[in-house]
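Incident log entry.

Two folding requests arrived from the same account within the same minute. Monitoring flagged them as a possible duplicate submission, but the sequences differ. Recording both here for audit purposes.

Request one:
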Amino acid sequence: MRNSDTAVKVVDCVADFVRAVESYDHQLETSWVFRGQTQDWDLIPSAARHGWYNFVELDLVQRWHREAAGILGLEDRADLVELLPHAQHHGVPTRLLDWTENPLVALWFAAIDGIELTYRYASVDEAAKRREEILSQISNGYVYITTPYNITDGSKDILNSKETNFIFPKFKNPRMNAQKSVFSSHSLPFNDSIGQFMFINKIQVRDFAKGKILIELDRLGISYSTIFPDIEGLSLQYKWNARRENRRIRSPKQA
């Protein structure tokens, strides 16, 4: 992987981020995908972190599919290119990495560990104390930007491919639709000497700004309930709302 932009942009708010990605919108001949991470981890898929080989991943995904097909409404004889995105999206270790066509979705994932910075506390002093405590546990987030290439529609044998391929799923579940999901597929066993991507650009999301960014994104319709449009996402959204409402900052006299 190589950086195409040596100067990493740094953002403290959604407006800064929109300006940072605006230049990509003007390059109409190129499409872009985005990935948000709460830290600057290496872009290594979960199956590769386990040191798996093709046959291990394939066996796990096929066994998962036999039990999940009826629950998720998947076809009994779905192709691997169709199965892998669903398995990946539901937490099964695969050769895939999640990306999105929506940069604000990537920003949300880069900032989500700052969720506690959005809560309010019983007094100004308590809020300041807790802020320092929380910030000590939060790192700068990153949004990675690349252009998809080697796009496969299912006709390519990704199981034996030594190249990085991109999958735009034909059959998406509600979460994939909401997150505008795209996936990059990598060879197993994973080999760092094989180029992961043509290039990667990065935008840094400052640790102390994550709470504010999450609140700004919520106002723009990017939140738990829209990222995960199901009962789990709705419940997490209500939990977040309730904790913010119940911990309003009061003056020391009222505390």
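Request two (distinct sequence, not a duplicate):
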Amino acid sequence: MYTRILVPLEHSDYDDAIIAHVRELALLCQASLVIIHVADGWAARNQQQLVLRESKEMKDDRAYIESVSDSLEAAGLEVESVLAGGDPASEIAAAVVREKCDLVAMSTHGHKGVQDLLRGSVANDVRHRTTVPVLMVRGAARHA
């Protein structure tokens, strides 16, 4: 069914839902995973043009996706991790092509109406920018 799944993570509680879901899906399909996080702070957006070093935020993001990748590998999956910088929807759509993925699996916040207009929806933008299927799983914030 699917052979290579791109999993965009935002480094938040909302990632838990898609990680759990994609772990089972990848095992079932015997698919490899590409975990991607798109850092979108000022340093991340300008790193290449200005030849900047990774910011603390980017280092933390890299450690996070590598930790997630390690836990998925421990479950028996083939996993790569990618840290990108810039506009999340554009970088995710580009990664689909570059990494030869046949599915994007991502969590959503479940905003409605005005919230999507105010905050935008990366998932919706990705859905419009790529030709591969996009699986969206509604995430939730952890409770203390």
